[in-house]
Structure formats: structure tokens, C-alpha cells
Design a protein that fits this description.
Structural class: alpha+beta
Largest sheet: 6 strands, antiparallel, barrel
Distance between the termini: 79 Å
Radius of gyration: 44 Å
Number of strands: 22
CATH superfamily of the largest domain: Efflux pump adaptor protein, beta barrel domain
Number of helices: 4
Number of domains: 5
Strand content: 35-45%
Shape: rod-shaped
Strand order of the largest sheet: 2-11-15-13-12-16
CATH class of the largest domain: Mainly Beta
Length: 367
């Protein structure tokens, strides 16, 4: 009898264990109830902008070139130095072309011979004029020839001196061998060295740049804007510049130029833009700094907004889900305003204290 009771007890326990196992596995297979996070509307400033990339450059930058060809005998400036208009920045030693030099010397010899012959002719006719043998008109014709010969001799001598020294004796202290600054500013670059050869600037040749000088007190931003964005901007829009080399400061600028014609770069149409940079900032801007320009298209301060990722759409109508009790939400259609791509202005549909359902894939922007 006792054995029979034990068997029945064990059987009941075994059956109970089986039911408990099925119950445990069933509960374990059930998904836990989904809990949604919520977010409340907040006050913020929304700025809609577009971005252009470019660099900082002086508004006025001039390359200083030599008016004569030769060798740099002396440099008087270094990069970073301030110069004034008229300051001598280099001296050029002329190395004349041997063919031109020979032609100039031959011209002098010919002119000297013509002058000597004209002088002898004049001296002979002057004696005849004093003896009343020839008329004054005949003497004047001889005087004209000697004067013409003298002019040709002086011209040939000046040409030779210009070839050798860069200036004629009639020019006084003026000499093309001295290169002078044409503007007041800072020397940005000196791409040549003493002893280097330079080529003169003329109609057919740009010439060798001896130094570039710029007014660093007036800087501009030059960048490029994609064709999909250029229609949104216009002159006199405000710009905020961020410069990679100065990461703790931003610079205010004003858009002043938009190119009427685009250029093709990497298969896309880009438009050149230019903006004047405000002088309010204390940081020194170096020419060539890379910069990003945030062009402010529109801006609203102190408006009620929510993250744009919270909004859902039904037949192109925006709505949010508002919590009416613990994890119970109702759909509310809303009217939106300005958006910066992260936050969006809410004009109507929700209140400041409403808790909005945050979709699982949505991200809350961090200021």
C-alpha cells in the first residue's frame, strides 16, 4: 500500500514538473512589453542654413615683378614683413644679351662716325659763312645735320647704358634695377632667392614674381556653392565662418558676390561666392586658411520645437503620438514651421507639457 502511494506521489510530481516546464518556457518565449521613451517640446532657436567650402584670402593681393631681366643681386624683404608703397624690395643685376649689346655698340660707333663727319662739315661751312661765301640758309642745313647726328649719338649711348644698368643717364636716379612695392601691406611670399634669375614683365610674358604683398586688414572668404543651393541665397545674407585652424572662434561675414556663371568640378556645377569678413574678431587671419561658410537662409529665436525624428506622416500629413496615460498614446496632427534638419518648429497641435512618443529608431539631438 505504501509503495503504491509513493508511486502515485512521484507520478503527480513528475506531471507537475512537466506542466511547470512548459509554463516556464512559454513565459520565457513571450516578448516583454515595449516601453517607449517620451520627450517634451522645448524652446530653442532654429537656423536654416546652407554650407559652402572655401578659404580666407586678402581682398587686395599684388605680385611684385621686375621690369628688367637679370639676376637678383639683393633682397630687402622676408615673408611676414610690413612694407609701404614705394619701398625697395629687391635689386636686379642686369645680364645683357650679348647680341643686343653688340648691336648697341655698333650703333654707337656708327652714330659717332656720322656725328664726326657732320661736325667737320659744319666747321668747314662755318668758315665759308663767316667769309660770306655761303648763305645762312646753307649753314642752317648743315646745322640740322649735325644736330640730328648728335641726337642719334645720345640715343645710342642711352640704349647701351640701359642694356648694362637698366637706366639711362637722362633718367637721373631712377633705375629699373630696383623693384619697389606698389602697395602698402604684408609680404606673404618671396618665391625667389638672391642669385636667382628673373624675367622682365612685358606684353608677352608675365614675368617672374619676386614677392606677393597683400593688405591683411581686409580679408574675404572665397568659396563654391552647389547649383542645388545657389538659388536659395542672395547678396547681403549673413554668414558665419568656421576656420579649421581657429576652432574656438567663429567669424561673421556678409555675402557680397554670387557668380552669374557656374563651373564644372568633379561632374557637378559649382558657383563662386565671395563674402566680406567682419573686423570685429581679434584673431589674426592668415591668407589661405580653409573655412566653411554657414549661410543663414532664415532664423527664428525662442520658438517651441521638437526633434524632427519624432514626427511621423500619414498621407503626407505630419503627426505625433501624445501620451494620455501610462504608455498609452493618441495620434495628433500638427502644424510645423521652420526646420534646421534636426529640430523643427511646432506652430499648432501640441502643448509645452505634452509628452511625445519617441520612436525606437529616433535620436534625441544633443546640444
Amino acid at each position: 500500500m505504501t509503495k503504491k502511494i509513493i508511486k502515485i506521489t512521484l507520478l503527480i510530481a513528475f506531471i507537475g514538473l512537466i506542466f511547470w516546464t512548459f509554463y516556464f518556457l512559454y513565459n520565457k518565449s513571450q516578448k516583454p512589453p515595449e516601453v517607449f521613451k517620451t520627450i517634451m517640446p522645448f524652446d530653442t532657436s532654429i537656423v536654416k542654413k546652407t554650407v559652402a567650402t572655401g578659404s580666407v584670402t586678402p581682398r587686395k593681393e599684388v605680385n611684385m615683378k621686375s621690369q628688367v631681366s637679370g639676376i637678383i643681386e639683393k633682397l630687402y624683404i622676408v615673408a611676414g614683413q610690413q612694407v609701404k608703397q614705394g619701398d625697395v624690395i629687391a635689386k636686379i643685376k642686369i645680364v645683357p644679351n650679348m647680341l643686343n649689346l653688340a648691336n648697341a655698340e655698333n650703333r654707337i660707333n656708327t652714330a659717332q662716325l656720322n656725328y664726326d663727319n657732320a661736325k667737320m662739315d659744319y666747321d668747314r661751312n662755318k668758315v665759308l659763312f663767316d667769309q660770306n661765301v655761303i648763305s645762312k640758309a646753307d649753314l642752317q642745313a648743315v646745322e640740322l645735320r649735325i644736330n640730328s647726328a648728335k641726337v642719334e649719338l645720345d640715343a645710342s649711348q642711352n640704349q647701351l647704358q640701359i642694356l648694362k644698368e637698366g637706366a639711362s643717364k637722362t633718367a637721373g636716379s631712377t633705375s629699373n634695377t630696383f623693384v619697389k612695392a606698389t602697395i602698402t601691406g604684408m609680404v606673404l611670399d618671396v618665391p625667389v632667392k638672391e642669385g636667382g634669375q628673373v624675367i622682365e614683365s612685358n606684353t608677352f610674358n608675365e614675368g617672374t614674381t619676386i614677392a606677393s604683398v597683400a593688405n591683411m586688414g581686409e580679408m574675404i572668404f572665397e568659396g563654391k556653392l552647389d547649383e542645388s543651393e545657389v538659388g536659395k541665397v542672395q547678396e547681403n545674407m549673413d554668414i558665419v565662418l568656421t576656420i579649421g585652424a581657429i576652432d574656438k572662434e567663429s567669424f561673421n561675414a556678409k555675402l557680397e558676390y554670387i557668380a552669374p556663371k557656374g563651373i564644372t568640378e568633379n561632374g557637378a556645377i559649382q558657383f563662386l561666392i565671395r563674402a566680406s569678413i567682419s573686423k570685429d574678431n581679434a584673431s589674426f587671419l592668415r591668407a589661405g586658411y580653409s573655412a566653411n561658410a554657414d549661410i543663414i537662409l532664415s532664423k527664428k529665436d525662442n520658438v517651441m520645437a521638437i526633434p524632427e525624428s519624432v514626427i511621423q506622416f500619414e498621407k503626407e500629413k505630419p503627426f505625433v503620438e501624445v501620451e494620455i496615460s501610462n504608455q498609452i498614446f493618441e495620434k495628433r496632427y500638427i502644424k510645423t514651421g521652420l526646420s534646421d534638419g534636426i529640430n523643427i518648429e511646432i506652430i499648432d497641435g501640441v502643448k509645452k507639457m505634452d509628452k511625445l512618443k519617441l520612436p525606437q529608431l529616433a535620436e534625441i539631438p544633443v546640444d
